Q: What sequence folds into this?
C-alpha cells in the first residue's frame, strides 16, 4: 500500500498542475471503489476552482470553495496528470476509473486495479471529516517530538513497532518505514513501547523524520503498483537497510537480518544492532 512518502510524492507531482484550475467536467467510469465515489460528483465539482492541495496522513486533499475532495490510493491506486494535447487523454485504460477535466485541458486521472481506494466529497473543513478527525500528528511536523512520543508510548505494553503504525499515535509510518526507522534508532521492533526511554524517543523521532525525508526525496518505494503522477516508479527500495532483507547481512554489523510477524505484518530487524 502506498505510504506517506508515496502519497507526498504524488501530491508534489499533482499540485502544480491543478492549483488554481477550474473543473470543466468529471467522468466516473467505475464508482465502486472501497467506498463508492460520491454520487453526483460531476455536478458538485463542475465550475469549482482548486484552492490548494494538501496531504493528511495517507489521504490527498484537494480543496475547493465548497469543500474538499478526499482521495486515498488504497493498495494499488495512482493519480496521473495529462496535459492538454496528450493523446492518452482520449484512451483511458481498463482500470482508469475517474477523470477530472479542467478548463485548460489538463486531466487528473485516478487509476486503481484493485479498487481499494476512495474518492469522496466532503462539504466541510478537512479536520472535521470522520476519517481525519481522530488522527495523530504528522511525523514531519514540530508537534511530533520526543516529549510527545514518550508520553504516548510510556503506557503502552504492545510492541513499539505496532505503536508507530497506529495512526492515533502518529500518522503515515507504515510497515516499511517503521522497520527502517527502528533499525536506524537501534531499537528492537519487539520491545514493549513502554520500555522505550525518553532519550531513545528522541533518537526514534529523528530516525523517522530522516527515513521519511529520504524516501520522499527518492520518490517513495515501489513494491508492486506505485507510480507517481508521471507514471514513474519510486527508488527508495534500493536503500532499504532491513526491510525485505531476511537472511541477508546487516549493513552495520554483518549479522543476518531476522524476520518475524508482528500484527500480521512482516517485521525485519537485526538482533545484534537493535535492542
A:
Amino acid at each position: 500500500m502506498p505510504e506517506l512518502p508515496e502519497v507526498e510524492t504524488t501530491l508534489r507531482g499533482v499540485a502544480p498542475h491543478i492549483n488554481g484550475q477550474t473543473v470543466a467536467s468529471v467522468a466516473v467510469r467505475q464508482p465502486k471503489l472501497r467506498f463508492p465515489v460520491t454520487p453526483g460528483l460531476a455536478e458538485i465539482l463542475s465550475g469549482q476552482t482548486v484552492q490548494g492541495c494538501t496531504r493528511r496522513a495517507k489521504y490527498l486533499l484537494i480543496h475547493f470553495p465548497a469543500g474538499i475532495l478526499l482521495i486515498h490510493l488504497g493498495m494499488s491506486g495512482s493519480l496521473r496528470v495529462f496535459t492538454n494535447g496528450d493523446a492518452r487523454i482520449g484512451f483511458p485504460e481498463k482500470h482508469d476509473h475517474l477523470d477530472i477535466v479542467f478548463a485548460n485541458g489538463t486531466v487528473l486521472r485516478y487509476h486503481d486495479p484493485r479498487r481499494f481506494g476512495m474518492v469522496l466529497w466532503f462539504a466541510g473543513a478537512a479536520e472535521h471529516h470522520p476519517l481525519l478527525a481522530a488522527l495523530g500528528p504528522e511525523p514531519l511536523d514540530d508537534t511530533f517530538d520526543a516529549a510527545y512520543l514518550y508520553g504516548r508510548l510510556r503506557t503502552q505494553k504492545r510492541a513499539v513497532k505496532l505503536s508507530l503504525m497506529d495512526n492515533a499515535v502518529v500518522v503515515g509510518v507504515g510497515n516499511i518505514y517503521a522497520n527502517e526507522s527502528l533499525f536506524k534508532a537501534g531499537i528492537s521492533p519487539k520491545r514493549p513501547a513502554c520500555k522505550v526511554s525518553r532519550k531513545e524517543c528522541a533518537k526514534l523521532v529523528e530516525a523517522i523524520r530522516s527515513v521519511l525525508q529520504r524516501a520522499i526525496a527518492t520518490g517513495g518505494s515501489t513494491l508492486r503498483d506505485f507510480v507517481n503522477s508521471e507514471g514513474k516508479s519510486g527508488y527508495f527500495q534500493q536503500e532499504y537497510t532491513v526491510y525485505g532483507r531476511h537472511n541477508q547481512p546487516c549493513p552495520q554489523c554483518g549479522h543476518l537480518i531476522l524476520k518475524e510477524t508482528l500484527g500480521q505484518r512482516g517485521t525485519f530487524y537485526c538482533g545484534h544492532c537493535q535492542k
The radius of gyration is 20 Å. The CA atoms of residues 60 and 71 lie 5 Å apart. The first strand starts at residue 23 and ends at 28. The beta strands are 23-28, 52-56, 59-64, 67-72, 78-82, 96-102, 107-111, 118-122, 258-262, 265-269.
